[in-house]
Amino acid sequence: MEKPIHGSHGSDAHPIRILLVEDSREDAELALAELAEDALAHEARVVDDEAAYLAALRDFAPDIVLSDLSLPGFSGQRALELLRQRDAELPFIYVSGTLGEEAAIAALHDGATDYILKQNPARLASAVRRALAEAAEHRASQRAEAGLIRAQRFESLAMLAGGLSHDLRNLLQPLLLAGESLREYRDDPQLARLGELVRDCGKRGLEMVQSMLSFARGARRAEQVRLGALMDALELLLQGSVPRTIHMQVAVEAPELEFAGNHTELQQCLLNLCLNAIQAMPNGGELRIEAAQQRLEADFFEPGEQAHPGRHLRLSVIDDGPGMGADVLARLFEPFFTTKESGTGLGLLSCRRIIASHGGVMRVDSAPGRGARFDLYIPLQEAGADANDGDDVDTLEGVGERVLVVAEAASELSLLSDTLDAWGYRASASQSGTAALQWIGVHGLPDLVLMDADMNLFTGTRMLAALVDQGYDGAVVMLARPYAPPQLDELPPLPRLRVLDKPVTTRKLLRTLRLALSSTMD
């Protein structure tokens, strides 16, 4: 049976919830009076049978349980057993007049936090404070340990992603080169279409690899973000998170649009908004993700915001969930404010800071019963000349220049050589740095060296050093992994060296070769 609730408001900021299992009204009032006298602010609920006890555990959600050892039809041992079935950490203190030494040791062994004799009530308040403090410390320790485990998992994921990225880039390189080569067969439209399909699949695979690697490693630097790649990566990350009851639509106005930003941070922001929307629709609904360009006027911006009138990219996450009232909207960006049972409340605050770091602004539109809409506005540079690395060339075709191609992977070596031959170069293939030096010994120095930086026995850096020793001062194009540029600190300056991230498209490779050879002739 549940008995009247007692309460006391002392100096503590938040009253603690105490569930007292006691059949004696006088003993219950004495224990609670002892807590009040010690200025321990509390709310209490007193029960004396199993049914009321279970109901209080569920509805009252106590911070601590104080229990007598023996009650008519119920017992402290049973109360402890029921509590530990539900919660292994919640403090439980016996308050009994008949607890011998052996019984006390057994109680602690069974999971009790402490025991107090009714003849010594003065120790009750200090025991309650200590039990609550130890429980809070234990929870903090568990959170820290869980955070460390998560950090270690992410670190392992980053290492794994780095290794997989290297392998996948080597697999994608032939797709890009072969696809570009097949596209040149204009006399055979079917073959040309096949080449375009192979090339597009390779490019999409590369974008996914870059997105996943960037997300696993975390934000690194500002970069040129391609809108289509950003939205494709977001869809890929959401695939396992969208339940069947939610219909997701993605509408991208200009997937080829590129803008200055940080792919990882924007991906994190959009992912957070989408997961929030999914959690807001437990019974299903519509999730729409939009990307479009929009011109903003000066009066759009609010006081304190960075005002950038003109062309903007608008990224929108829209749901038809229950929506939010004015009271929630007013606190939406407060640190640690959350409407979820578990969560830090920092997701939206981080999202707004990310958009602000891009020079943009964030808008929220929601009301009860009509869902929620989050719009992210990122300023775009006004359209100008097409970005082409600041360089241009008249033609991509060679005029019989001798190119020495050095790569350990046979498929890569073959495709690079065949591609260059098809575009008017005289390509010679060497599958190792040693073989390349032997070729030079027989045929003399080439006009250009195209080499893979990732060679095992005779590394790209050693190959460059050997070329310098041979007196070579011509152009070098090196294919290297992103995030892992070749270490050239011990080499003399190489003004005609150009480094390309792998995998590289045929067009970019040919442009780089023409530019490198032009610089050699200057």
The major pleated sheet works out as: 6 strands, mixed
Unreliable sequence segments: 342-346, 383-391
How many H/I helices?
Answer: 14
Shape: elongated
Q: Please state roughly what percent of the residues sit in beta strands, choosing from under 5%, 5-15%, 15-25%, 25-35%, 35-45% or over 45%.
A: 15-25%
- For the record, what CATH class of the largest domain applies? Alpha Beta
CATH architecture tag of the largest domain = 2-Layer Sandwich
Write out the CATH superfamily name of the largest domain.
Answer: Histidine kinase-like ATPase, C-terminal domain
* Total domains: 3
The largest sheet has its strands arranged as 1-3-2-4-7-8
State the helical fraction: 40-55%
What is the structural class? alpha/beta
Rg calculated over all Cα atoms: 34 Å
Tell me the distance between the termini.
97 Å
The name CATH uses for the topology of the largest domain is Heat Shock Protein 90
Mean pLDDT: 81
What would you say this structure looks like, in words?
This protein has 14 helices and 20 strands. The strands form 5 sheets. It has a 6-stranded mixed β-sheet with strand order 1-3-2-4-7-8, with helices on both faces. Helix 6 crosses helix 7, helix 7 packs across helix 8 and helix 8 runs antiparallel to helix 10.
What's the topology here?
Elements: E1 2-8, E2 16-21, H1 25-37, E3 42-47, H2 50-59, E4 64-67, E5 70-71, E6 74-75, H3 76-86, E7 92-96, H4 101-109, E8 114-117, H5 124-183, H6 189-217, E9 223-226, H7 227-238, E10 246-252, E11 258-261, H8 263-279, E12 285-296, E13 310-319, H9 326-330, H10 347-357, E14 361-366, E15 372-379, E16 402-406, H11 410-422, E17 426-430, H12 433-443, E18 448-452, H13 460-469, E19 475-480, E20 497-501, H14 506-521
Parallel strand pairs: 2-3, 2-4, 4-7, 7-8, 10-12, 16-17, 16-18, 18-19, 19-20
Antiparallel strand pairs: 1-3, 5-6, 9-11, 12-13, 13-15, 14-15
